[in-house]
Design brief:
The chain is α/β, with parallel strands linked by helices. The chain is 28% helix and 15% strand.
Length: 154
């Protein structure tokens, strides 16, 4: 059976990239915050059921990046400052969990905990300016549902 599309390059319009153009483009090599797990300079989302230890995972990731130690003893990380925007857990529980994880008190991790952070254009712009000024490598937002007013599934 022969394809109705033929064998030539398919061009669909100015907003689409053809396979030929994609393959002919030289892209910079991907850099990683956590090797082959978390890309540097990119947005990474984690989603799971309530009570599935997401915050523990995020705190472990923050510690590894701040220390420059392999994440879960396996993934090499780029060491750097970490900012955790916590709109769910609260400072007492964060302190307890970090102590249980054996955190060193002098790590470059900062918190904005239960301060009513909202994902508006202005607050995100300010957050990114601060992150650049203080050379923050990782921003953790816990949880997305608590910082925006839209439908979390859109």
């Amino acid at each position: 059976m022969q394809s109705k599309l033929g064998t030539g390059t398919l061009t669909m319009g100015p907003n689409y990239l053809s396979l030929k153009d994609l393959m002919a483009t030289d892209y910079p090599e991907q850099t990683w915050l956590a090797k082959e797990l978390i890309p540097a300079g990119a947005l990474t989302a984690m989603s799971a059921s309530p009570g599935s230890y997401k915050t523990w995972l995020l705190l472990s990731t923050a510690i590894a990046v701040a220390e420059g130690s392999p994440l879960f003893g396996h993934f090499d990380v780029q060491q750097g400052r970490v900012l955790i925007i916590d709109e769910e857990t609260g400072e007492p529980q964060l302190k307890d969990r970090l102590a249980k994880l054996g955190v060193k008190k002098n790590l470059p991790i900062s918190f904005l905990s239960r301060k009513g952070f909202e994902a508006s254009e202005d607050s995100i712009s300010e957050l990114l300016l601060d992150a650049r000024a203080y050379e923050v490598k990782l921003i953790i937002i816990d949880t997305l549902v608590n910082i925006h007013s839209g439908d979390e599934n859109n």
